[in-house]
Amino acid sequence: MSQNRQVVIRELPKGELTNDHFELVDGEMPGVDEGQVRVRTILMSIDAANRAWMQGATYREAVKAGDVMHTYSIGEVVESKDPSLSEGDIVAVEARWADYVTVKARHAQKLPDYRPLTHMLSVLGIAGKTAYHGLIGVGAPKAGETVVVSAAAGSVGIFVGQIAKALGCRAVGIAGGQEKCDWVVNELGFDACVDYRGGNLFRELKAACPDGIDIYFDNVGGEVLETVLFQMNMKGRVVCCGAVSQYNADAPTGPRNLPGLIVVKRLRMEGFIVMDFADQDAKAESDLMGWVKEGKIVVVEDVVEGLENAPRALTGLLAGDNRGKRMVRVAPDPS
Ligand code: NAP
Predict the structure, then answer these.
(1) What mean pLDDT is predicted for residues 278-305?
(2) What tens digit of pLDDT does each residue of 192-220 get?
(3) pTM of the model
(4) Which of 186, 253, 256, 303 is deepest in the core (most CB within 10 A)?
(5) Cβ-contact 311, 19 below 8 angstroms
(6) For residue 245, which atom of ligand 1 is closest to its CA?
(7) Distance 156 CA to ligand 1 centre (A)
């Protein structure tokens, strides 16, 4: 039995990421110096961005071959050499795919005693906050407007459409496969959802958005973005959240209609990173929890059991096999 199991990146992918790019190894239990804490991993966030980190430096350092895979996680402090944190505290940390990590105490964010802990990675975590800040802070929706979101059944997408509905907008999703699209409408309450793999995205989107599109929350980039841009209304807003269609691609594709359509339709296209809005996180958390309590937001979590299954959790997410916020449970919640 290992002291500290870890999942290492054996080799960086060129093109599609596969489970073979990772290896489960037995690692040493990390030591704890003054000012540090040792954290037992409970839940690890699995994000499309994990793949983007392998392409080079983004809003954070790149991950390299030989690294224990990077992640955001929630864990329990099991040893502390800093007065700010004690054994038993629950913290959010930039961590690794490992049973235990050691971090500087000032880099560990102590979390309130809130259950279920999974909500701290979903509706109250990066997924919910990205949806909230991107839609409200960047998209500035007004009641009655049409909001389209891609990767609509994914971690961020499920919240974007539901927040749009809570604000009185028409919410239209784009997702892979008819079954997923039906789920988005029937379980999450979107007004419509269009299958981008069905071969008729332009026509079906037009039918689903009879008044055009005021806000496009773009999680995927590429050809989907190109298609949506044609249907944007004058003065529409394109919220650039990510480009998951490009993360496994050798060569980037589309959109080819830039900057022409931006000019003609007077569009605003703006990127953001969720941390840009950290000063508004408290309001985001309170609004999101309010909508959950009122039944306006359904929280869907997709929990994969076991550290050893983290590689397939990520490769599966990139292939679209998740519904809602994907995470890996490494250890049970503390009682
Ligand atoms: P996710 O949406 O839970 O999962 C990714 C989804 O992308 C899959 O379920 C799949 O659903 C879809 N997808 C995969 N390949 C695609 C393709 N070629 N074309 C269209 N859709 C494809 O993942 P997530 O972690 O929440 O990330 C969603 C997006 O948000 C990513 O772009 C990520 O980088 C971004 N993000 C940005 C921030 C920020 O601060 N800006 C923060 C968090 C996440 P289908 O079955 O529908 O294809």
Answers:
(1) 97
(2) 999 999 999 999 999 999 999 999 999 99
(3) 0.95
(4) 303
(5) yes
(6) 18
(7) 7
Q: Whose CA is nearest to atom 16 of ligand 1?
A: 245
**What's 283's DSSP letter?**
H
Residue located via tokens 């690294």: 67
* Ligand 1 centre distance from Cα of residue 48 (Å): 5
Contact 80, 106 (CB under 8 A): no
pLDDT band at 2 (very low <50, low <70, confident <90, very high): low
Instruction: Please give the single-letter amino acid code of residue 112.
Output: P
Q: Where are the domains of the chain?
A: 4-121+300-329, 126-277+285-292
**Residue 1's pLDDT band (boundaries 50, 70, 90)?**
very low
User: Which of 156, 197, 224 has the most ligand 1 atoms within 8 A of CB, as the residue to mutate?
Assistant: 156
The highest-level CATH class for domain 4-121+300-329 is alpha beta
Burial of residue 268 (number of CB atoms within 10 Å: 0-12, 13-18, 19+): middle
Give the residue whose CA is nearest to atom 2 of ligand 1.
154
Helix (H) or strand (E) segment spanning residue 148: strand 146-150
Quick one: angle between helices 157-166 and 178-188, nearest 10?
Answer: 40
* Average pLDDT of span 272-285: 97
Tokens of 199: 């071969």
pLDDT tens track for 36-45: 999 999 999 9
Q: What is the pLDDT of residue 16?
A: 94
Helix H or strand E encompassing 4: strand 4-9
> How many CA atoms, within 13 angstroms, populate the side-chain half-sphere of residue 6?
20
126-277+285-292 CATH choice from 3.40.50.300, 1.25.40.10, 3.40.50.720, 3.40.50.1100: 3.40.50.720
Q: How far is the CA of 137 from the centre of ligand 1 (A)?
A: 20
Average pLDDT in the chain: 96
Ligand 1 atom index nearest CA of 133: 40
Residue nearest to atom 35 of ligand 1 (CA): 242
